[in-house]
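From the methods appendix. Each design record in this collection lists the tokenized structure first, followed by the designed amino acid sequence. Records were kept in a plain field format so they could be parsed without special tools. The example shown here is representative of the layout used throughout.

RECORD:
FOLD TOKENS (101 positions):
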């Protein structure tokens, strides 16, 4: 059985220093690309719809958006979706979109 190497922060320090060679725009473009690749187009659409519904709810109720929203605001949002008759799966998707941000 081989010896387990000791932990070191040397690699971490090197990766942080390496990131200095990229400008903000390049890093943001890569973040956007990775996020887009992480979910299907259908998931992106569902999350976008959920966030639009949440923003509309906040506007209609005079709630100033702050992230992350409080549990009370999310529960009121869920209640409003239930009163609108949305399917439980749709409500779950909308709530997931809030958590995605």
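DESIGN:
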């Amino acid at each position: 059985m081989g010896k387990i190497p000791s932990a070191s922060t040397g690699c971490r320090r090197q990766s942080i220093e390496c990131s200095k060679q990229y400008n903000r725009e390049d890093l943001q473009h890569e973040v956007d690309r990775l996020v887009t690749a992480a979910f299907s187009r259908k998931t992106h659409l569902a999350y976008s719809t959920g966030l639009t519904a949440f923003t509309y709810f906040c506007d209609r109720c005079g709630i100033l958006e702050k992230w992350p929203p409080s549990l009370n605001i999310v529960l009121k949002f869920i209640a409003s979706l239930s009163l609108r008759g949305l399917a439980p799966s749709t409500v779950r998707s909308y709530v997931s979109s809030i958590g995605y941000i």
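APPENDIX NOTE: The chain has a mean pLDDT of 84.
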